[in-house]
User: Which sequence fits this backbone?
């Protein structure tokens, strides 16, 4: 997966904001920040974005030529051990699997909960900001870093392990999903059900009901995690 980016000294903290503009988290800079220069992705070009890149010292970076304009640049990483230790360490993963008793609490732990000290980060965001860099710190473009897919496969694995502790309730009951059909309920929408349909558009594949995607052993899937 290649490694860190070239070290850039004197980078400022990464400051994340809540929807109301207040500070959600302040993350220290990592040990890289520049272009990846080793491994199979050292010459990789990132072409989309930035659309919402969290910048050292605060602020957000966007593509000056327009959000979806062609913008080739090197893959950057800023590996940050401190973020991993705070939010996405082995103890945090184990807690996320064993403690939540419903999917709402599981999701809150995964995405970050001020009550448990994860400050809007959790193991999901913690993984992204452990990688850092561009596009790793860009909410919209982070899949342009190949390491994104390893991280999200592990997020799926954590959910799978949580499901397996009570599979009937956590896969196919009406309590297996919660929340609304829009991100952060913007715009306001109806509560999600297992019969709601997932539309994949250009990502490939036919529309699927959520209930057909809840098991790694059913529907279009046939895999398990070890």
Assistant:
């Amino acid at each position: 997966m290649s490694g860190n980016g070239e070290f850039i000294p004197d980078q400022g903290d990464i400051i994340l904001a809540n929807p109301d503009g207040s500070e959600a988290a302040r993350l220290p800079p990592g040990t890289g920040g520049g272009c990846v220069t080793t491994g199979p992705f050292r010459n990789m070009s990132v072409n989309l974005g930035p659309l919402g890149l969290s910048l050292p010292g605060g602020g957000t970076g966007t593509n000056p030529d327009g959000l979806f304009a062609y913008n080739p640049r090197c893959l950057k990483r800023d590996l940050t051990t401190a973020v991993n230790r705070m939010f996405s360490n082995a103890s945090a993963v184990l807690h996320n699997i064993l403690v939540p008793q419903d999917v709402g609490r599981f999701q809150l732990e995964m995405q970050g909960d001020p009550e448990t000290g994860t400050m809007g980060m959790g193991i999901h965001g913690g993984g992204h900001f452990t990688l850092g860099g561009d596009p790793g710190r860009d909410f919209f473009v982070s899949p342009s870093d190949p390491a994104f897919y390893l991280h999200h496969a592990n997020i799926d694995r954590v959910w799978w392990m949580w499901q397996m502790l009570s599979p009937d309730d956590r896969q196919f009951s009406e309590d297996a999903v919660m929340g609304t059909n829009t991100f952060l309920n913007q715009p306001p929408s109806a509560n999600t059900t297992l019969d709601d349909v997932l539309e994949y558009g250009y990502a490939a594949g036919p529309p699927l009901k959520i209930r057909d995607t809840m098991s790694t052993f059913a529907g279009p899937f046939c895999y398990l995690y070890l």
In short: The radius of gyration is 18 Å.
